[in-house]
Amino acid sequence: MTKIRSVILSGGSGTRLWPMSRPEKPKQLLALTSAHTMLQMTAQRTIGDAFLPPIVVANAAHADQVEAQLNEAGAAAGAIILEPSGRNTAPAIALAALEADPSEALLVMPSDHVILDVPAFHAAIAAAMQVVDKGGLVTFGIQPDAPETGYGYIQIGEEAALGVYRVERFVEKPDQATAESMLAEGGYAWNGGIFLFRADAYLSALEKFAPEMLEACRAAVAEARREGIRVYPQADRFMACPSDSIDYAVMEKADNVAVVPVAMGWSDVGSWDALHAISACDAEGNVAHGDVIAIDTSNCQFRADQGKKIAAIGVSDLTIVASGDDILILPRGRSQDVKKLIEAMKR
């Protein structure tokens, strides 16, 4: 039976959840939806006899936090690959595939997503293995419940195995009208960025479609510095690697790509609005974390760091976050605009 090794991608910065998520402690290292951090919850989804210890690909600046959090969660890593700089998902996964045994199936997961129905996820993984064992590349399609314009879509083709379908095409993030049309038509899934394939199948695809990327990653791993489970790819070799996503570099070009549609309570927690949507609310629709006093207030989200207090009277439909020396206030529905704030502050 093919062993499955999770590959957890932990290099993101999570800027849309500023001011709590910052470069020194990004979203995946925060406890946003439970007592555990996003990284810990991701690792805990693949603890069991069917799974090998995870390979985590992370920013070198977060090495101590990543290792400590995984150990605390009882999900110690088999290896932590520490990128000198981010080069997008395709090279990050290549580093992990080169570190793994070629015959292992790699379950690639972002470190900062929520999956509420883990048994449904495991059932989807089992279905995907029918194709993975034959050398196929599988992505997991999230059942859409709204005409979301912030995600890419996958058009589902004919059935290739029980519960597994050929990918007809990948669709870029659509405008509102296109998203509504696809939802009405049916046969589309959100591209959640979760993948499953054998290490050797992924490396073969890179050799075919992105040989320069594979060559740079091979050289970076061959000359890597190792300290226990920590792997530091050679910086100059890795920085010579083209930067590209797995979708563009491999999945949209290969002809052996399949999709497993799954409803598993998934969210990428990509914004304050998304976090509010999956959080438990009180009778007035408020979500409060930390020292919060709210009177005559409805449909608001409040988050306060330890030592901070938020007091609100007579407001509705706001997100208010007090973290560090910063306070964020914005109307619900505008949380995607936090990126504009970050850009303005950089200027």
The whole-angstrom Rg is 21 Å
Secondary-structure arrangement, i.e. CATH architecture of the largest domain: Alpha-Beta Complex
Assembly context of the chains: single chain
The largest β sheet comes out as: 5 strands, mixed, barrel
Shape: globular
CATH classification, class level of the largest domain? Alpha Beta
Strand order of the largest sheet: 6-9-7-8-12
Would you list the SSEs in sequence order as H and E?
A: EHEHEHEEHEEEHEHHEEHHEEHEEEEEEH
Low-confidence stretches: none
* Category from helices, strands and their pairing: alpha/beta
Mean pLDDT: 95
Describe the structure.
The chain is 29% helix and 31% strand. The chain is of the alpha/beta class and 347 residues long. The chain has 2 domains: 4-267, Spore Coat Polysaccharide Biosynthesis Protein SpsA, Chain A, CATH 3.90.550; 272-346, no CATH class. The chain has a 5-stranded mixed β-barrel. A hairpin with a 2-residue loop joins strand 10 (225-227) and strand 11. The longest helix is centred in the middle third of the chain and has 15 residues, at 118-132. 44% of the residues are buried.
Keywords:
347 residues, alpha/beta, Spore Coat Polysaccharide Biosynthesis Protein SpsA, Chain A, 2 domains, five-stranded mixed β-barrel, four-stranded mixed sheet, 11 helices, 29% helix
